[in-house]
């Protein structure tokens, strides 16, 4: 059974009642971030119950030594970890001589957490009775500023309810922290310097090995009934990695005592002198003040929502789900820095190393292209271009490829492979195809071809060279085959001729060949520069074409489907519906050997190919493959429901499309996979957006034009979304009776609805 304690609400994530069994899950769900840093929703005060402490800084990582039972040639030397950053939110609190800890309170009532997605803040309120009998009301608000993105703010209010109270605040910053997922239980931070002032404190530390320098800072203000009290610290304690201040207050029953804390990080990625930068951030924050900064936060989020919001009428859970997904995506990545990317857990946890996967190219880029300026998506492509040399090195040194063949890593922070499972690292090579597809998709959507001659062509050539060398000729089949791979379905390892892998390999070579010819004709100087740089000959191009023109695709003529791989039909083909529910999820119930021998599919595999290359197949081909493979899919990957929702909508299977939409949109809120305490599934959240826009909205780009085939679940009264298409913003409103289009721009736009052209004029409403 899925969890259901999150209260339905259009704009907020709300939890009521305190339950120690839910603390870690809620720490994930109520996480906050601003693109530069983020943190789980840990309590500011000390908490002795089960908790997963986590604060994270974008771009800061550590090469944790790979932990394997034995070493094989080609294994990556390390598994890059997103680091649990120094803690700046901590505030130990004593009330009438007793340490305040929700886990040890004799009673907690009227507990409420709220993550206000519309305005970008997290609030926690409750009444508690301490063991010493003191009753208090607490209200805490926290936010990470979008405008001043190196700073976060806490307003922590305590009101004694039944007696006067001596309340002692002990705010601290602490660099002596460890990671939840450290392989060797080692510390990752080396303290360098501690600095203390009247209300300010700074701890500068650097990571071992990678030597990222970070100054963690805080500034404290004590208030009584909302007025600064100018109370000075009664003591300041420090070690080489921690500073803690003590503020003593005497508060009458019914009065409000509070501490406002400014904290955050300045990092060497952005500053030569991180300490001086931290001092400047504090001064900027103090000049503006808490209330103005909160108002700026609300306005900044309003601007984001103005473009990226999706509205759903008549279904609160569906509305809450899509906004939660959009909110988390924007918290994780705002597109300001091409050195950064989108980790599968974002700022909500440490699983998967917090690194870059193919999820970015396959799922996230469409969201960022359509809801932000195209420069944001271009930055994501530039990220891969900047790591091309590492991809070539990876293919050469780890797998023996030559001549500039590039294999992009399955997991990376800086371009080096850092995934330590051989069946993924060496065999899940289809990720190369997603990177090439993203280049194609970017041009298809934006019309900006300049990226390809400037950067993209080099990436495409490296990838095409990889596929050419990775294929081998089968005399038996008289075709080229690709052996020993793992497809998108990671419940199959070391298999031969995965359809999706073979298909995208052929497409990559063909597409690269086409772009070489196009650049030669339209950008001759770039063509000359690139071809000379990579030393590409006509003979090599012809060898590529031989592979692409004669590659093998496993197929069942009897069933009219492509086979996921050779031998798939030899399995015991028991559909998922006939699988005992007690055996689910199979990845937590079965041995790996049993999983590999089963027909069960983790996520879209053959269907991933049909999603990327929909126009290459007929609707009837999609139907046959969808109906066959969905029946064996257990959807135990967060990336699975969105593709199935899009294709179910295409096939008019609207009940199924809606069920998959709910699953992808509420995957974490309802904890479908029973793992949300480890963090949220950030990259798959872009798939939720796709489920509505591409699934129900039927949006496609064909011949430089927007096409729609709108459909609506019976559970909804209507829905709407915006698309930033080539610098014109079109809004689509869909109901059961009509579809409306409106346009922000300075020239008309022709869109197609179910194949019929409609001209939309600026600032006019067009109904269909």
TrEMBL record:
The keyword tRNA processing does not apply. Residues 699-759 form the Glycoside hydrolase family 65 C-terminal domain. Keywords: Hydrolase. Pfam families: Glyco_hydro_65C, Glyco_hydro_65m, Glyco_hydro_65N. Residues 14-268 form the Glycoside hydrolase family 65 N-terminal domain. It comes from the Bacteria. The keyword Ribonucleoprotein does not apply. NCBIfam families: PRK13807.1 (NF010380). This is Glycoside hydrolase family 65 protein. It comes from Flavobacterium polysaccharolyticum. The lineage of its organism: Bacteria, Pseudomonadati, Bacteroidota, Flavobacteriia, Flavobacteriales.
């Amino acid at each position: 059974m899925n969890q259901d304690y999150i209260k339905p609400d259009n704009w907020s994530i709300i939890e009521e009642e305190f339950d120690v069994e839910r603390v870690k899950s809620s720490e994930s769900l109520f996480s906050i971030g601003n693109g530069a840093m983020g943190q789980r929703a840990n309590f500011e005060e000390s908490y002795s119950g089960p908790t997963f402490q986590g604060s994270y800084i974008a771009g800061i990582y550590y090469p944790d030594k790979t932990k394997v039972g034995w070493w094989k040639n080609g294994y990556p030397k390390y598994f890059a970890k997103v680091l649990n950053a120094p803690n700046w939110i901590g505030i130990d609190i004593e009330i009438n001589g007793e340490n305040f800890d929700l886990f040890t309170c004799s009673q907690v009532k009227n507990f409420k957490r709220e993550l206000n997605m519309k305005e970008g803040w997290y609030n926690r309120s409750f009444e508690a009775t301490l063991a010493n009998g003191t009753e208090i009301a607490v209200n805490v608000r926290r936010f990470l500023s979008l405008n001043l993105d190196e700073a976060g703010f806490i307003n922590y209010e305590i009101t004694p309810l039944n007696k006067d109270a001596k309340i002692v605040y002990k705010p601290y910053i602490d660099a002596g922290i460890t990671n939840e997922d450290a392989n060797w239980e080692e510390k990752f931070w080396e303290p360098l310097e501690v600095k203390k002032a009247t209300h300010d404190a700074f701890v500068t530390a650097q990571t071992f090995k990678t030597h990222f320098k970070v100054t963690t800072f805080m500034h404290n203000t004590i208030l009584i009934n909302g007025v600064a009290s100018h109370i000075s610290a009664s003591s300041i304690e420090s070690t080489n990695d921690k500073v803690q201040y003590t503020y003593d207050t005497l508060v009458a029953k019914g009065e409000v005592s509070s501490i406002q804390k400014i904290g955050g990080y300045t990092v060497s990625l952005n500053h030569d002198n991180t300490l001086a930068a931290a001092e400047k951030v504090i001064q900027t924050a103090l000049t503006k003040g808490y209330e103005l900064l909160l108002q700026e936060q609300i306005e900044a989020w309003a601007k984001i929502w103005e473009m990226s919001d999706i509205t759903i009428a008549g279904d609160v859970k569906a509305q809450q789900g899509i906004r939660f997904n959009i909110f988390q995506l924007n918290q994780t990545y705002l597109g300001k820095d091409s050195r950064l990317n989108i980790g599968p857990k974002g700022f909500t946890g440490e699983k998967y190393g917090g690194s870059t996967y193919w999820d970015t190219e396959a799922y996230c880029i469409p969201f960022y292209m359509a809801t932000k300026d195209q420069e944001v998506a271009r930055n994501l492509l530039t990220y891969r271009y900047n790591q091309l040399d590492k991809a070539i090195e990876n293919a050469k040194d780890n797998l023996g490829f030559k001549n500039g063949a590039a294999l992009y890593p399955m997991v990376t922070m800086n371009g080096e492979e850092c995934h330590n499972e051989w069946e993924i690292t060496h065999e899940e090579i289809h990720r190369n195809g997603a990177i090439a597809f993203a280049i194609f998709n970017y041009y298809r959507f934006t019309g900006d071809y300049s990226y390809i001659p400037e950067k993209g062509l080099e990436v495409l050539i490296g990838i095409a060279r990889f596929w050419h060398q990775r294929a081998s000729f089968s005399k038996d089949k008289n075709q080229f085959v690709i052996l020993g791979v793992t497809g998108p379905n990671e419940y199959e390892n070391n298999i031969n001729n995965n359809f999706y892998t073979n298909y995208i390999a052929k497409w990559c070579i063909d597409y690269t060949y086409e772009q070489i010819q196009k650049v030669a004709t339209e950008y001759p100087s770039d063509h000359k520069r690139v071809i000379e740089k990579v030393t590409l000959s006509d003979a090599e191009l012809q060898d590529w074409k031989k592979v692409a023109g004669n590659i093998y695709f496993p197929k069942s003529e009897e069933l009219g489907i492509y086979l996921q791989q050779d031998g798939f039909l030899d399995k015991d083909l028991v559909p998922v519906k006939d699988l005992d529910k007690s055996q689910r999820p199979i990845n937590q119930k079965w041995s790996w050997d049993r999983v590999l021998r089963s027909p069960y599919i983790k996520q879209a595999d053959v269907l991933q190919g049909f999603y990327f290359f929909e126009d290459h197949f007929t609707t009837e081909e999609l139907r046959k493959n969808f109906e066959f493979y969905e029946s064996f899919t257990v959807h135990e990957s967060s990336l699975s429901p969105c593709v199935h929702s899009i294709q179910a909508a295409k096939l008019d299977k609207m009940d199924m499309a809606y069920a998959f939409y709910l699953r992808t949109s509420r995957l974490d809120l309802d904890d479908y996979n029973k793992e949300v305490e480890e963090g949220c599934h950030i990259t798959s959240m872009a798939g939720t957006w796709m489920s509505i826009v591409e699934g129900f909205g039927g949006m496609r780009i064909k011949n430089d034009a927007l096409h729609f085939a709108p459909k609506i679940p019976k559970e909804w009264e209507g829905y709407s979304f915006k698309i930033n298409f080539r610098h014109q913003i079109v809004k689509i409103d869909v109901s059961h009776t009509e579809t409306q289009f409106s346009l922000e721009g300075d020239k008309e736009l022709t869109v197609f609805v179910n194949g019929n052209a409609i001209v939309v004029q600026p600032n006019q409403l067009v109904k269909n």
